[in-house]
Design goal:
Helices cover 34% and strands 19% of the residues. With 280 residues, the chain is of the alpha/beta class. The chain has two domains: 4-63, no CATH class; 74-278, Rossmann fold (3-Layer(aba) Sandwich). The protein has a seven-stranded mixed β-sheet, sandwiched between helices. Strand 3, helix 7 and strand 4 form a beta-alpha-beta unit. Helix 2 (19-31) packs antiparallel against helix 4 and helix 6 runs parallel beside helix 7.
């Protein structure tokens, strides 16, 4: 029977800086043990079933399958979310959007709209921090929406309204205090779409037109019809798109337009306020 240290040492499938960390994550999952267990018990024997599961995961990871899809979970904010190939993998960069939303001076029972919710990451994180907010989450993919609803039920966050549809299509004339979204923003044909984890994520959740801004243009253009006076919009975008997104917000009548940087110093989200006097 293999020991913990033997299994980690025999890892020849994964290469690069993240190889050791990913191997440890996979072995912990196979054993259903915390990472500290590997450090404390390197000579512990690993049951054969767990060892085989670990080796199979290593092989699939070496073929490029993201760790989140292998394990079916991904941590985001303070939550552990179920994920699958129907959704984007929640990323730490998107937590910046949560941080900025929580800093806004909104009503205690603010009406919030999350467009393209995917696994439900943004809506669920906001619901956790602001349980009295009235959150509506929209998703076009039936399978992704099913997963988001499942995450909400498992996390006991029943206050979210889940809707199936494309952006604003199912909202009629409803208005909100805040609209948030992490829409597709990669240009069709971008080489990154055929490399790394992106190869396995749904293309419809990644790419948007020849410059990557088609969906962002659509969302910004329609948002004034669904924001109350003084309402906010916050969008995630590509790290080189900040200037263009700010220009789109300004051109559509938004004020207090600004972009905010992620931990790497890249402009990652942009925001603006809608006021009724901007109409016309």
């Amino acid at each position: 029977m293999a020991r913990v240290q033997d299994l980690l040492a025999e890892n020849t499938c994964l290469v690069g800086e993240e190889a050791q960390r990913e191997a440890q994550v996979l072995l912990c999952a196979a054993l259903d043990k915390p990472r500290s267990y590997l450090m404390a018990w390197p000579e512990a024997e690993v049951p054969e079933a767990a060892a085989q599961r670990y080796r199979q995961w290593l092989l699939r990871r070496s073929e490029g399958v993201p760790v989140a899809y292998l394990l079916g979970t991904r941590d985001f904010w303070s939550l552990s979310l179920e994920v699958n190939e129907s959704t984007l993998i929640p990323r730490a960069d998107t937590e910046l959007l949560i941080e900025q939303a929580l800093q806004l001076d909104l009503p205690g029972s603010a009406r919030v709209l999350d467009l393209g919710t995917g696994s439900g990451a943004i809506a669920l994180a906001l619901a956790t921090e602001r349980p009295h907010w009235q959150i509506t989450a929209v998703e076009q993919s039936a399978r992704a929406l099913e997963l988001a609803i499942s995450n909400g039920e498992r996390l006991n966050l029943p206050q979210i309204e889940w809707l199936s549809g494309s952006w604003f299509s199912e909202l009629d004339k409803r208005r909100f205090d805040l609209i948030v979204s992490n829409p597709p923003y990669i240009a069709v044909g971008d080489a990154h779409l055929s490399s790394g984890d992106l190869r396995f994520e749904p293309l419809t959740a990644l790419a948007s037109g020849i410059d990557g801004l088609d969906d962002i243009r659509d969302i910004i253009g329609q948002s004034p019809l669904h924001l109350d006076d003084g309402g906010w919009i916050i969008l995630e975008h590509g790290f080189e798109q900040g200037e263009e997104v700010r220009a789109l917000l300004t051109a559509n009548g938004f004020s207090n337009v600004a972009s905010y940087c992620d931990l790497a110093g890249h402009e990652r989200i942009s925001a603006g306020t809608w006021t009724e006097r901007a109409i016309g």
